[in-house]
Amino acid sequence: MSERSIRFGVTDHKGHRAATWKCWTQVGSGKKDVYLTCRALRGSVKLSLHESGHWHVAFDANLFPALFEQGAEPASRFAGKWDKPVPLIHGLTLACRVHTPWYGVTVPVESLDGDVFWIQAPPQGQSIEVAVFLSEADTDIADWPGRRSMNTSLVGSFELDGGGHVWIVHHSVPLVEPSLPPASAPKYFRGAGEEDLYEEGTRAVTWGDSSDGSVVFFEGPVLVRKNP
């Protein structure tokens, strides 16, 4: 089955980038389901925005049995569940956002992938926020979402089966660090362990929900501290 997709990432255009992301929909399925994943996760985890309004972040159903050692897997492959939020205006919903902080553009790269829409890294103290909007078939979008109200720039858009569009935009916003609780009993992928957390260049993808109902991702390098 074919798909419509957009890939995006943040770079300083000086030999470094952050993680890249992919947003897509299946063509010919007859459904308006939309998916988003951080490509560094290699398809193991993705956000699913189902037409039904039941959304979730989950491990891939086919990969899940092989991702963890037997007995060490999470209780469920679902890592977060949400209901589709109320539209911002008639027919236009802010589905999710991806934040890349100014200090997150650290992955060395000799050349940039030409299939990726590259966004200029933000100044110190700022994050690049990439926002994914869903518009209904009966909604007339004269311009891309947030162009005037949020000073956004367009990454791209694609049509959904049966009508409607996905719109992806970006802008720079003040940095807000995510607050994470201590992990007392973390789960590790098969073949990985605690020692891997302390390797140089460790990065993390975190997620949660915002007060406006959208799903928010935060990606960047991390400093791991072990509790005494």
Can you describe this structure?
- The structure is a single chain.
- By secondary structure, the chain is mostly beta strands.
- The protein has one domain (3-221).
- It is 2% helix and 43% strand.
- The chain has one helix at residues 64-67, and strands spanning 3-11, 16-26, 34-38, 45-49, 54-59, 78-83, 92-101, 107-108, 117-120, 126-135, 153-159, 165-174, 203-209, 215-221.
- Strands 1, 2, 3, 4, 5, 6, 8 and 9 form an eight-stranded mixed β-sheet that branches. Strands 11-12-10-7-14-13 form a six-stranded mixed β-sheet, with no helix packed on it.
- A hairpin with a 5-residue loop joins strand 13 and strand 14 (215-221).
- The N and C termini lie far apart (51 Å).
- The model has no long low-confidence stretch (mean pLDDT 92).
Average pLDDT figure? 92
Helix content: under 10%
User: What share of the residues does DSSP label as strand, in percent?
Assistant: 35-45%
Which blocks of ≥5 consecutive residues have pLDDT under 50? none
Number of domains: 1
- Helix/strand class: mainly beta
Count up the helices. 1
Largest sheet: 8 strands, mixed
> From the alpha-carbon coordinates, what is the Rg to the nearest angstrom?
18 Å
Number of strands: 14
Overall, the morphology is globular
- Topology order in helix (H) and strand (E) letters: EEEEEHEEEEEEEEE
Give the termini separation: 51 Å
Quick summary of this structure?
The protein is 2% helix and 43% strand. With 228 residues, the protein is mostly beta strands. The strands form two sheets. Strands 1, 2, 3, 4, 5, 6, 8 and 9 form an eight-stranded mixed sheet that branches. A six-stranded mixed sheet has the order 11-12-10-7-14-13, with no helix packed on it.
